[in-house]
């Protein structure tokens, strides 16, 4: 089952249930206006199955605008969770290389704040590259959707846009490398009802196109994520409450070659086999 936020024409945002790849069922007909409250239900997947069988108003997916599937949730991220990410970061940095090495094996994960919900970019909108960065990359990541109790209620596709030169210059610059206009994209929907074992079979793929031609392609299995899912979610909710729930990006395992940097006009396409495809163009901010 997949949930989304969508907008038909210029209407108000609504909550939808994706029946298939072409149709969205309008849950506002059932009085459901917010994803956040749905995520608090126990047995959500079963309830969505029941709703899917009802005769709800439908829209063709091509006739609506999909929005980022966040309302008031803060977005956080885990880092250095794939071997590939640890290696790339140790290479790009000078004196902070051991920090990445240590955190990869430490019991406590690296966790960082990524975005306020209102700053998240949805499907089809532009993600940003900083005008003062020389080396910008997308980071395609499986994202957990967590309710206020810290339970993983679903998964979405995330892009943790990053300025590698700024991060590499000094680890204390991480917030500037990671948090700026257009640095976080989420979507196109939230996949509900998948277990960790199932999510670990999913393939994460990144394709970057420039002037119509593909300039980078990479893939990784979510099964290569080093940390158990509950461990990552558990650390986020340690000593901190999230009354509206939260979204947690789980790190990247795809790193383009060092000579590659995003350019304005590029198109970043991230697909996660069990969730969907998130596509965004690139603009300088
Ligand atoms: O430590 C820097 C950030 C790591 C990160 O974003 C990742 O591994 O995906
Ligand atoms: Mg990342």
> What is the number of helices?
8
**Percentage of β-strand residues:** 35-45%
Query: In total, how many beta strands?
Result: 18
Helix fraction by DSSP (H/I, runs of at least 4): 10-25%
Detail the poorly predicted runs: none
H/E series, N to C? Answer: EEEHHEEEHHEEEEEEHHEHEEHEEE
Radius of gyration: 18 Å
Molecules bound to protein: 2,5-dioxopentanoic acid, magnesium ion
What profile does the largest beta sheet have?
Answer: 11 strands, mixed
Task: List descriptors.
binds 2,5-dioxopentanoic acid; globular; 36% strand; 5-stranded mixed beta sheet; 19% helix; alpha+beta; binds magnesium ion; 285 residues; 18 strands
Describe the structure.
- The protein contains eight helices and 18 strands.
- It has 285 residues and is of the alpha+beta class.
- Strands 1, 2, 3, 4, 5, 6, 7, 10, 11, 13 and 16 form an eleven-stranded mixed sheet that branches. The chain has a five-stranded mixed sheet with strand order 8-18-17-14-15, with no helix packed on it. It has a two-stranded antiparallel ribbon with strand order 9-12.
- β2 (14-18) and β3 form a beta hairpin.
- α3 (83-92) runs antiparallel to α4 (97-105).
- The longest helix has 10 residues, at 83-92.
- It is globular and about 60 Å long.
- The chain binds 2,5-dioxopentanoic acid (DO4) and magnesium ion (MG).
- 2,5-dioxopentanoic acid (DO4) binds next to β6 and α3.
């Amino acid at each position: 089952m997949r949930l989304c936020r969508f907008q038909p024409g210029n209407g108000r945002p609504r909550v939808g249930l994706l029946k298939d790849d072409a149709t969205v069922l309008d849950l506002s007909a059932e009085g459901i206006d917010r994803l956040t409250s749905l995520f608090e239900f126990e047995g959500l997947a079963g309830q969505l199955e029941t709703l899917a069988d009802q005769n709800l108003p439908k829209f063709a997916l091509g006739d609506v605008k999909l929005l980022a599937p966040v309302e008031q949730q803060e977005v956080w991220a885990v880092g250095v969770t794939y071997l590939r990410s640890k290696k790339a970061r140790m290479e790009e940095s000078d004196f902070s290389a051991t920090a990445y090495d240590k955190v990869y094996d430490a019991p406590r994960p690296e966790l960082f704040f990524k975005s306020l919900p209102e700053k998240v970019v949805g499907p089809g909108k532009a993600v940003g590259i900083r005008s003062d960065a020389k080396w910008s990359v997308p980071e395609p990541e499986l994202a957990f959707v967590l309710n206020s109790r810290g339970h993983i209620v679903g998964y979405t596709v995330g892009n943790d846009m990053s300025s590698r030169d700024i991060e590499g210059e000094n680890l204390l610059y991480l917030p500037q490398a990671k948090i700026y206009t257009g640095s976080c994209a989420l979507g196109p929907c939230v996949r509900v009802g998948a277990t960790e074992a199932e999510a670990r079979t999913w393939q994460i793929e990144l394709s970057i196109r420039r002037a119509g031609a593909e300039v980078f392609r990479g893939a990784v299995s979510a099964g290569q994520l080093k940390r158990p899912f509950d461990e990552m979610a558990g650390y986020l909710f340690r000593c901190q409450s999230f009354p509206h729930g939260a979204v947690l990006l789980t790190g990247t395992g795809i790193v383009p070659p060092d000579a590659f940097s995003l350019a304005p006009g590029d198109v970043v396409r991230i697909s996660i086999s069990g969730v969907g495809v998130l596509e965004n163009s690139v603009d300088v901010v």
